[in-house]
Amino acid sequence: MSVLDQTRVDRPSPRPRRLSWTVSDAAVMIDRGMRHTLRNGDALFMSVFLPIMLLLLFVYVFGGAIDVGTGYINYVVPGIILLCAGFGAATTAVGVTNDMTTGIIDRFRSLPIATWTVVLGHVVASMARNLFATGLVLGIAVAIGFRPTASPLDWVGAIAVVALFILMMTWVSVMFGLIAKTADAASGFTFFILFLPYVSSAFVPTDTMPAALHGFAEHQPITPIIETVRGLLMGTPIGNSWWIALLWCAAILLVVVPISSHLFRSRTRV
Amino acid sequence: MSPGRNVVIEATNLHKSFKSTSVLRGVNLTVEEGTMLALLGPNGAGKTTTVRILSTLLPFDDGRAMVAGYDVNRQADQVRSIIGLTGQYASVDELLTGYENLVMIGRLYHLGKAQAKRRAAELLEQFDLMDAAKRAVKTYSGGMRRRLDLAASLIAVPPIIFLDEPTTGLDPRSRQAMWAVIADLLAGGTTILLTTQYLEEADQLADRVAVIDDGRIIAEGTADELKGRVGTERLELSFSRASDLTSALAVLDEESAQVDDERLVVSLAVEGADDVRRRLNALHDVPVQITDMSLSRPTLDDVFFSVTGSVQDDNGSAQHKADEGVTAA
Ligand SMILES: Nc1ncnc2c1ncn2[C@@H]1O[C@H](COP(=O)(O)OP(=O)(O)O)[C@@H](O)[C@H]1O
Ligand SMILES: [Mg+2]
Q1: Which of helix, strand or coil describes residue B297?
Q2: Pairing state between β B160-164 and B21-32
Q3: Closest CA of chain B from A105, distance in Å
Q4: Which residues of B touch A113 (CB under 8 A)?
Q5: Which residues of B touch A2 (CB under 8 A)?
Q6: Are B86 and B192 in contact (CB under 8 A)?
Q7: CB count, 10 Å around CB of B315?
Q8: On chain A, which terminus has fewer CB atoms closer than 10 Å, C or N?
Q9: CA distance to A138, A207, B169, B177, per residue, from B174 (Å)
Q10: Where are the domains of chain A?
Q11: Which Pfam families does the entry mention (chain A) (predicted)?
C-alpha cells in the first residue's frame, strides 16, 4: 500500500490566502451545512412537522374556542409561520456547539481557510432550511383554508420580514451555540425559543392576557413582527409595528453578530 | 545535524502557560526535511501543546516557532497550506460520510473538485475504508475514525505532517498498519513530527528522538543513542533458592548482571536471540533450577530514569547505568 504514489496531486506550496479561496471555502461550508440539515433527521422533522402539528391543533382543536373576529385560521397562520421559522433557526445552536466541542474545529483551523466560513455555513443552511419549512407550512395552511389577501408586493414584504426574522433568530442561536459548553445546553436554548411565541400575539390577541403577561407580550420583539406579517398577508392594520419590528431585528443583529464574532474568535484562538 | 538538509520544523525556546500553570518551559526542537522526529514523553509532558503550537492552533507566550521558514503566528496561512495535522483525537465530521469528509477537506485544501473526489476514493481504498465510504462517520469504530482522520490529513499530499499519538489505543494490527503508512510517507520524502509514549514506536520509525518531560526536552538524539543510555534488552531469570542464584552468577560471570536478592531474580543485558541462547547454554551443566524466564525491552521509564539520572552531568551525555532498586552484582 502506498499513500502517495497513485496520485498525481502536486505537493502544495506555501501560499497566502486568496480572495477566490474564501469564496470557494464558503461554498464548501454551505454545502456542508445543507448536508447536515438533510442528514440530521430529528432536527428536520422537528422544524417542519412540529409547526404543522401546531397548525392543525390550533385550527381544528382550539380554533372553535378562540374568537378573533375573522376566521381563526387566518389569524393564527402568520404566528405559526414565525414559530416554525424561529424554532427551526434555534436548532442551529446545537450544530454550532457540536462543531466547537468536537475535534472538527481543530481540523478546520489547521486548514488554509477563512475559519469564519464555518459559521457562515450554519447561517446559510439555516436560512435555506427555514425558508423551505416556512413555505411548506404555508402550503399546508392554504390547503386547509388559509386565504391571504396579500398583493404580490405584500408577499415580497412578508417574505422579506420572515427572512429577516430567520436571520436574526439564526444569529441569536449561533451566539448561544458558541456560549453553550454542551449540545444539551444548546438544545435547552431551542426549547426556550419555542415558548416565546406563546406569550405574543401569535395565537391570541395580547389584550386577552393578564396585565403582567400583556405588558411583556406587547413589548417583546415577536409581537410587532407577527403583526407586520399578519398585516401584509391579511390586510389587518399594521400601524407602527413594521418599523418597530425592523428596529428590533436590526438592534438584535447589531448586538448578537459582533458578540458571536468575538466569541468565535476567542474560542478558536486558545 | 547532517549538512545539506534543511530544517523544516523549528521550535526555539517555546514557553506556554495555561493560566498560572506553566506547560512548556523552553522547548527546543528541529526536524530536517524528509526525516521524522519522534517527540517521546509521558502523559501531560507537553506533546500535544507543542504540536498544537507548531500547527498554528495555539498561541504561545514566548519563543519562536517556524515551519518551512514561515512564522506560525504571523504567517499561519502559508504554514496551513503545507501541513497536515492528525490530532490526538480524531477530528472528522460525524454527520458526513467518510467520502464526504475527504472530499470536503480536499476542497478546503483548494484541490479542484474532480481532484478532491479522485483523491478521496484513492485514500478510502488505501486505508481500507471502501465498505464504509458511504456511511456516516458516527457509525465508525475508533480505529476507522483514526484512519479516516489520517487520510484527511494526507489528501492534499502535504510535505509536512504532524501526528499526535497516532497509535495510542490501537490494537496491534492497526498499529502495524499505521506504522506501514508512516514508513511509506517517509519514503515519499514527507517531513514528520510524531508524538508517542512508546519508546518502541520511536525506535521503529524515527530518525531522531526528542524526549520531553514536564515541558522541557530532556534528551535528544537518534534512537540508538538513547537506547545506548539505557542498555539493550534484558533477560530475567528467576530462581527458587538463593544458592541456585549464586551458582548461576558464578557461571555467568556477567558484569551487566543485576540481582534482586529478595525476589531471587537475575537480570542480564542481552543482544538478540542468539545471545539469549548462549547464556542459557552456559547454565546447561550447572545444577540450578530456573523457575521463570522473561525478556524485557527498555521502556520509556528506563529512558527517563537514565536521562534524569544523568541530567546533573554537564550536558546529559554521560552514560548511566539503570539500577532501579536492584543491586549491581
Ligand atoms: N487548555 C488547557 N488548559 C489548562 N491546562 C492544559 C490545557 N491543555 C493542556 N493542559 C495541561 O498542560 C499539560 C500538558 O498537556 P499536553 O500537551 O496535552 O500533554 P501530552 O500531550 O504530552 O499528554 C498537562 O498537564 C495538561 O493538563
Ligand atoms: Mg497529548
Answers
A1: coil
A2: unpaired
A3: 8
A4: 80, 108
A5: 126, 184, 188
A6: no
A7: 7
A8: C
A9: 54, 68, 10, 5
A10: 14-268
A11: ABC2_membrane
pLDDT confidence band for A238 (50 / 70 / 90): confident
C-alpha grid cell, residue A14: 506555501
Distances (CA, A) of B154 to A8, A81, B124, B131, B190: 13, 46, 11, 20, 10
Integer Cα distance of B195 and B163 in angstroms: 6
Question: Distance between alpha carbon B4 and the CA centroid of its chain, in Å?
Answer: 26
Q: What are phi and psi of B11, to 5 degrees?
A: -115, 130
- How far is Cα A199 from Cα A203, in angstroms, rounded to an integer? 9
Residue of B23, B29, B47 to test ligand 1 pocket, by largest number of atoms within 8 Å of CB: B23
Q: What angle do CA B88, B82, B110 make, to 5 degrees?
A: 100
Among protein residues, the one whose CA lies closest to atom 7 of ligand 1: B18
pLDDT at B216: 94
CA of B44 to the centre of ligand 1 (A): 6
- C-alpha–C-alpha distance, residues B132 and B140, integer Å: 8
Q: What is the pTM of this model?
A: 0.82
Q: Which three cell numbers stand for residue A154?
A: 405584500
B55: closest chain A residue by CA: A110
Task: Write the pLDDT tens digit of every residue in B36-46.
Answer: 999 999 899 99
End-to-end CA gap in chain A: 38
C-alpha grid cell, residue B104: 470536503
Instruction: Express each pLDDT in B278-303 by its tens digit.
Output: 888 888 888 888 899 988 877 666 77
Task: Name the nearest CA neighbour of B12 among B72, B57, B58, B81.
Answer: B72
The 3 state secondary structure assigned to B92-120 is CCCCCEHHHHHHHHHHHCCCCHHHHHHHH
**Close Cβ partners of B201 (under 8 Å, ≥ 6 residues apart):** B38, B167, B179, B194
CATH of domain B7-228: 3.40.50.300
Q: Can you list the alpha helix ranges (DSSP code H) found in chain B?
A: 47-54, 76-80, 98-108, 113-126, 142-154, 172-187, 199-205, 223-230, 242-252, 272-282, 300-310
> What are the beta bridge partners of residue B220?
B210
- Give the DSSP per-residue string, B6-27: PEEEEEEEEEEEETTEEEEEEE
B215-237 average pLDDT score = 82
Buried b (16+ CB within 10 A) or exposed e, B73-99: eebbbbbbbbbbbbbbebbbbbbbbbb
Q: For residue B33, which of B67, B84, B75, B81 has the smallest C-alpha distance?
A: B67
Helix, strand or coil, per DSSP, at residue B237: strand
Please count the other Cβ atoms lying within 10 Å of the Cβ belonging to residue B307. Answer: 18
Tens of pLDDT, residues B197-214 = 988 888 888 999 999 999
Q: Could you say which of 3.20.20.70, 3.90.1150.10, 3.40.50.2000, 3.30.70.100 is the CATH number of the domain covering B232-297?
A: 3.30.70.100
Q: Pick from A9, A17, A113: which is nearest to B159 by CA?
A: A9
A265 touches chain B (CB under 8 A): no
List CB contacts of A65: < 8 A, sequence separation 6 or more. Answer: none
Atom of ligand 1 nearest to the CA of B165: 21
Q: What residue ranges do the domains of chain B occupy? A: 7-228, 232-297
Q: Which amino acid is at A57?
A: L
> What is the B43 CA–ligand 1 centroid distance (Å)?
9
